[in-house]
Amino acid sequence: MDKQPGLTLIVKTVTRLLVWMIFLYGTYIIFHGHLSPGGGFGGGVILALGLLSILLAYGRDFTLSWLNVRFLKSLEASSIILFLAAGLMGLVLGEVFLFNFLAKGTLFSLWSSGFIPLLNVVIGLKVGLSLFLVVLALAEFDLEKGAEE
Amino acid sequence: MILYALCFALFLVGLYGLMTKRDLIKIILALGVMGYAVNLMFVLIGYRARAAYPILEPGKPVPAMVDPLPQALVLTSIVIELGVTALLVALALRLFQKYKTFDITQIRRLRG
């Protein structure tokens, strides 16, 4: 067998099949954050673990070419601005910072509790991408040359 | 009470690893075990047996509820612990880059 980066074919195939289910589960946790245990943080961690399984199974070079890391970095940095914008809209439209200005809906339905699901999505993006980028930065660290950036 | 004692035992496991191991990665893992023991202790303090989730609903009597304050504190603590662990791993990588070992008995002299 030719020497390929990453782990064996078995691990790669299982990762290729499972990673989308991991992403689906993370998205489910994020969108049900106001109804059940979980939320932005837990779902974001699950999304980051899905990305990490790709990084572990396929190696660093494939992950860097498959993902647009520059876009992910911009998204991770700008998600906190989205959170701040949501909070300031509450300040403008309501009375206080992070005021819940959207319609609450009925209790325990999926589209309820105003913009808390949207904040969960923002937090999930922030947590997942920053967790993944931390590990990617540690994996990118070259022991011979030192830090690249 | 026995759960709190087990929590303390878990903390002592982490402390044992922190004080006796020589490998930097094992020391970082032991530090993580200590942190998780403390988090578990906080959550257990807020726990009440057969209690409901802490959400008030209109028109329903207030049941016995789990204390949500330790859970919120522990969530923050987990995030900070994640940052501390990432920082420690980065420092360990830097040390490995300079000394080519994770053994703390070999990392003795300050070399520029």
Q: Can you characterise this structure?
A:
The complex is a heterodimer of chains A (149) and B (112). Chain A has helices at 9-31, 40-58, 60-66, 69-93, 116-140. Chain A is mostly helical and 149 residues long. Chain A has one domain (9-140). The longest helix of chain A is centred in the middle third of the chain and has 25 residues, at 69-93. Chain A is elongated and about 60 Å long. The two termini of chain A are 35 Å apart. Chain B has 112 residues and is mainly α. Chain B has one domain (2-53, 65-99): Helix Hairpins (Orthogonal Bundle). At the A-B interface, helix 5 of A face helix 3 of B.
Question: Could you give the topology of this structure?
Answer:
The complex is a heterodimer of chains A (149) and B (112).
Chain A: H1 9-31, H2 40-58, H3 60-66, H4 69-93, H5 116-140
Helix pairs in contact in A: 1-2, 2-3, 2-5, 4-5
Chain B: H1 2-20, H2 24-46, H3 68-99
Helix pairs in contact in B: 1-2, 2-3
Percentage of residues in DSSP E strands of chain A = under 5%
Tally of separate helices of chain A: 5
Q: Which geometry of chain B do the CA atoms define?
A: elongated
The main β sheet of chain B shows up as:
none
Counted beta strands of chain B:
0
As a whole number of angstroms, the C-alpha radius of gyration of chain B is 20 Å
Q: How far apart lie the N and C ends of chain B?
A: 52 Å
| Total number of distinct structural domains of chain A | 1
Q: Helix and strand succession of chain A?
A: HHHHH
Biggest pleated sheet of chain A:
none
The run of helices and strands of chain B is HHH
* Quaternary form: heterodimer
List the defining traits of the structure above:
heterodimer; A: mainly alpha; 5 helices; 0% strand; B: 112 residues; mainly alpha; Helix Hairpins; 3 helices
